[in-house]
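4.2 Preliminary Data

To establish feasibility before requesting continued support, the project team ran the inverse folding procedure on a target of 741 residues. The structure was first converted into the token representation described in Section 3, and no sequence information of any kind was made available to the design step. The complete token record follows.
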């Protein structure tokens, strides 16, 4: 047996693995993954520590050159080893190369210089120092005198002094050499986030919240590190429940990973958590600098923090004593990685929790079908929060039928009922959110004469119109000026169709000339804090109406919002993606949940052309069970996850013929392997057949058995590696895909 090892876990070391022979005496080789071993390294066979990242029966390298692993390292299991094992699991279960998996997991930060702070202090007693100072002054040693004068006053910061006084290090060095002063060095951590003041205010939990907390805490104290689904309606106080449980976990000396769906939500979450837990909290995400990440890595590893907050990559925080993983808003699509290995954070969190003996809580107001399936299979325990805490009542929801509006002559995008309610809120000085479901929406330009839509030259998608005269590709960023006639038939009748935020803003301003309106979408939120600034301003009451897309519905609390209008609820229902109904339901419920979170009773108007659709109905009545039972029946009929398992094999090539040929070959290979245990569909063009000048085709494989799909993935991976037909075609794997890859 052979082992591939890495000789360090910083980013530059992860790209290269080295092959060694595993001595017979080591026993079960598979158990070696993640183990630290000692190997003879380089020409001099220097004894070097290395981690085993892969075990295999054979190697391509000349066997006479392969050296033996010397022995296992004495240090025992380390967190790096556990994470390497996790990376290996990712590779095996989702596909891709070991290096890719390692880089996802050990986003290990290149080794970065730590920040140093140096403090200068006096070594001599005062009298003696003053004598020396007089001596310096006499000899006109100006800089040295300045330093000494300062040191006599008090200890001071070395770096600041150098900068302010334009002093040089040599002056300091000579004083140090003569034993007059000393310079003490301290290593500091970069702190990427401000933790707030700890305050002891705690809310009094209601009966359901207490029930949920007691269940988890009782289990925990008995040594049962369970898996739970905290199913609580919007605003039911899930975060309070998490915090109460975290308190128990932390008091046992263990650590907590708190996953949130988006980086933008980390700051408000840290603020809330630090009010309760103080300073031992940090964040981890890809927007931080290398130095910040490296320091958080060290702080976590050394146990200097108890809680880490972040999006899916925070799952790989190197906590030695992991006690709890929370996956908040577990239904969110952003938990699925869109690059290889295309893992789902929920699945990985369940795995890591099991491996490390940690409890796990998935939380949501609109749980994914996957999570509910786990619950109905008794794999996970449900904790319900069915009401909002005292004083806050869930909003009242009305459906406005846009077909009726049209019939009765209202051509506006705002129904008469919604319009009436907006006026009422304006009069009362309460706030309104208008939510536009942009999923599935295209503000594209097309020609009314020939019907041609203007497309991006690099991607097979329509360009989107932006004021005043630009056409932009939302996938690759390509831009051109809006033409004044159709590029194909030269007709001047070209224009935009559909509903964009800008259009809505224009209409709202016209219909409600006295209202102060804010708009938030991809365009207004450029810049690191554009997003936050708009939300803050709205929170402060600086506007009456906020118009926005999905980004305004996630996890924000607006005290004074008593009306939410959902303008085109059904736009995303017919996307041809098997999750379309589920994502629409989530969006509607989450958007509706923004209403009435403060003192005001909330009202929600869902505008739709399909008032009878089960998704609209279930969202309007808040009946999750109803939604679930219809949706799961549809998944069963159509054989979609979570009722069966689905693997998308995605092929990429620079030429259409190349990708088609590759797809045919793989489809043929699968046909040869034909068996009862799986079904092949395709190959088909991806929903965006060309993206950034690369063509994409997909083969779908379905099986009731996930392991069967993993086996096929392995066969395909090996085949592609060996076959000369795939020099220009690359292949990726996507298990239980989200959207149309
Ligand atoms: P969720 O995470 O379910 O959306 P939060 O935990 O954010 O809900 O709670 C919503 C609001 O209700 C917050 O302002 C929170 O402080 C408050 N809250 C939660 N539980 C209670 C309670 N038991 N009593 C009073 N207020 C509560
Ligand atoms: Zn035309
Ligand atoms: Zn493009």
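Position-by-position output of the design step:
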């Amino acid at each position: 047996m052979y082992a591939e090892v890495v000789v360090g876990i910083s980013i530059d070391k992860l790209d290269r693995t080295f092959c060694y022979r595993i001595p017979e005496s080591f026993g079960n080789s598979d158990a070696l993954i993640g183990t630290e071993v000692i190997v003879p390294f380089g020409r001099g066979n220097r004894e070097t520590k290395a981690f085993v990242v892969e075990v295999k029966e054979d190697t391509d390298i000349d066997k006479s050159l392969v050296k033996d692993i010397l022995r296992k390292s004495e240090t025992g299991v380390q967190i790096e080893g556990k994470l390497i094992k996790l990376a290996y699991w990712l590779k095996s279960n989702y596909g891709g190369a070991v290096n890719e998996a390692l880089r996802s997991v050990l986003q290990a930060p290149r080794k970065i210089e730590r920040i140093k702070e140096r403090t200068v202090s006096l070594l001599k007693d005062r009298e003696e120092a003053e004598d020396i100072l007089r001596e310096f002054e006499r000899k006109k040693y100006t800089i040295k005198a300045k330093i000494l004068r300062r040191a006599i006053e008090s200890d001071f910061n070395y770096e600041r002094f150098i900068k302010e006084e334009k002093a040089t290090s040599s002056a300091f060095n000579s004083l140090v050499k003569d034993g007059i002063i000393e310079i003490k060095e301290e290593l500091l951590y970069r702190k990427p986030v401000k933790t707030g003041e700890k305050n002891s205010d705690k809310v009094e939990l209601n009966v359901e919240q207490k029930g949920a907390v007691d269940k988890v805490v009782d289990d925990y104290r008995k040594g049962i590190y369970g898996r739970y689904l905290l199913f609580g309606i919007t605003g039911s106080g899930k975060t309070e429940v998490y915090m109460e449980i975290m308190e128990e976990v932390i008091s046992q000396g263990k650590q907590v990973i708190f996953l949130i769906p988006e980086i933008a939500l980390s700051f408000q979450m840290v603020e809330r958590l630090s009010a309760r837990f103080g300073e031992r909290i940090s964040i981890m995400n890809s927007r931080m600098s290398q130095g910040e990440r490296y320091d958080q890595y060290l702080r976590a590893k050394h146990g200097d923090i108890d809680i880490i907050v972040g999006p899916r990559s925070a799952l790989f925080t190197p906590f030695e004593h992991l006690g709890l993983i929370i996956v908040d808003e577990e239904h969110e699509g952003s938990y699925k990685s869109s690059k290889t290995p295309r893992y789902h954070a929920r699945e990985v969190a369940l795995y890591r929790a099991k491996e490390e003996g940690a409890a796990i809580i998935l939380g949501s107001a609109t749980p994914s079908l996957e999570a509910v399936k786990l619950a109905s299979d008794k794999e996970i325990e449900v904790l319900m929060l069915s009401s909002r805490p005292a004083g806050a009542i869930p909003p009242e929801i009305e459906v406005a039928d846009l077909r009726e509006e049209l019939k009765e002559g209202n051509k506006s995008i705002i129904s008469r009922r919604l319009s009436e309610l907006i006026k009422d809120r304006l009069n009362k000085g309460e706030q309104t959110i208008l939510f536009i479901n942009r999923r599935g929406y295209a503000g594209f330009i097309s020609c009314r004469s020939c019907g041609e839509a203007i497309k991006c030259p690099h991607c097979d998608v329509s360009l989107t119109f932006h004021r005043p005269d630009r056409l932009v590709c939302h996938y690759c960023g390509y831009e051109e000026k809006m033409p004044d006639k159709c590029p194909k038939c030269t007709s001047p009748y070209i224009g935009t169709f559909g509903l964009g935020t800008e259009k809505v803003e224009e209409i709202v301003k016209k219909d409600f000339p006295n209202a102060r309106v804010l708009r938030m979408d991809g365009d207004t939120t450029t810049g690191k804090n554009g997003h936050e600034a708009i939300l803050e301003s709205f929170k402060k009451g600086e506007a009456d109406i906020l118009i926005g897309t999905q980004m305004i519905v996630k996890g924000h609390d607006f005290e004074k919002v008593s009306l939410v209008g959902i303008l085109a609820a059904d736009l995303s229902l017919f996307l041809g993606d098997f999750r379309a109904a589920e994502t629409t339901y989530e969006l509607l419920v989450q958007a509706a949940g923004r209403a009435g979170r403060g003192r005001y009773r909330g009202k929600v108007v869902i505008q739709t052309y399909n008032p009878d659709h089960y998704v609209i109905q279930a969202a309007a009545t808040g009946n999750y069970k109803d939604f679930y039972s219809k949706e799961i029946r549809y998944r069963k009929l159509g054989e979609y996850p979570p009722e069966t398992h689905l693997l998308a094999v995605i092929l990429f090539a620079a030429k259409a013929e190349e990708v088609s040929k590759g797809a045919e070959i793989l489809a043929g290979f699968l046909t040869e392997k034909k068996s009862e245990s799986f079904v092949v569909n395709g190959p088909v063009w991806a929903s965006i057949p060309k993206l950034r000048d690369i063509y994409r085709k997909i083969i779908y494989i379905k099986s009731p058995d996930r392991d069967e799909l993993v086996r096929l993935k392995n066969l395909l991976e090996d085949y592609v590696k060996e076959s000369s037909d795939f020099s220009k075609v690359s292949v990726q794997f996507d298990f239980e895909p989200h959207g149309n890859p």
